[in-house]
Amino acid sequence: MTLEKLLDQVQDKHIILQPRGDCIGTWAPNTCIPLTTRRAIWKHKSELLHRIAQSDIRTCPSRDLHRQYYRYAGQGRFVCGMCALLEKEVTRL
Ligand SMILES: [Zn+2]
């Protein structure tokens, strides 16, 4: 599975990707994450971790609710301000 197809699935299924060291945990209430998707997350974990750290909108699990917090970060990149805020709160716990 390509990274782009994986990112489409992450957003379609509202999968929350949680960095755990150099691995990625997943949380998707009321949704079964297919094995092929889990394998793709493992395969692309380095790129996903980089995008999560950048709060890239492609790893945002809630496009509809967070869209108002999207902003242009330059060089063709868009970031989600809400995901950035939530990431800081989660890492403080
Ligand atoms: Zn977001």
Map the helices and strands:
Blueprint: H1 3-12, E1 16-20, E2 23-27, H2 35-43, H3 45-53, H4 63-66, E3 70-74, E4 77-80, H5 81-92
Antiparallel strand pairs: 1-2, 3-4
The protein binds zinc ion.
Report on this model:
The chain is of the alpha+beta class and 93 residues long. It contains five helices and four strands. The chain is globular and about 35 Å long. The mean pLDDT is 91. Bound molecules: zinc ion. Residues 60, 62, 66, 80, 82-83 line the site of zinc ion (ZN).
Provide the low-confidence segments as ranges.
none
The overall pLDDT, averaged over residues, is: 91
* Strand proportion: 15-25%
The topology string of helices and strands comes to HEEHHHEEH
Radius of gyration: 13 Å
What's the total number of strands?
A: 4
**What is bound: which ligands?**
zinc ion
Structural class by helix and strand composition = alpha+beta
Could you estimate the helical fraction of the residues in percent?
40-55%
Taken together, the total number of domains comes to: 1
Strand order of the largest sheet: 1-2
**How many helices?**
5
How is the main sheet built?
A: 2 strands, antiparallel
Termini distance? 33 Å
Given the C-alpha coordinates, what overall shape results? globular
